[in-house]
Amino acid sequence: MVAGRYGEATLVRLYRTAGRVPEATALRDVLGLTRERFTTLWRDYVTKELA
Q1: What are the domain boundaries of the chain?
Q2: Total-model pTM
Q3: CB burial readout 7-35, b (16+ within 10 A) else e
Q4: CA distance 50 to 34
Q5: Which of 5, 7, 10, 47 holds its CA 20 to 30 A away from the CA of 28?
């Protein structure tokens, strides 16, 4: 979902950032999302892909 929406470079940046800071901080700093919003987007993505 992240690569499709934000690009592969952003996905790599998210992984690298998450290795240094808490998950919520990485999501906010890299994607501009709260953990709650990311979870909602992820659930919507998975539901659509599995439908």
Answers
A1: 2-50
A2: 0.88
A3: eeeebebbeebbeeeeeeebbbebbeeee
A4: 24
A5: 47
Characterise 14 by phi-psi region: left (phi > 0), alpha (psi -120 to 50), beta (else): alpha
Averages of pLDDT over each 10 residues, the chain, 51 residues: 96 98 99 98 96 91
pLDDT at 40: 98
Q: For residues 23 and 45, what is the distance between their CA atoms, to the nearest angstrom? A: 20
Report which DSSP code applies to 21. Answer: S
- Residue 40 tokens read as 């909602």
Q: What contacts 6, CB < 8 A, 6 or more positions away?
A: 31
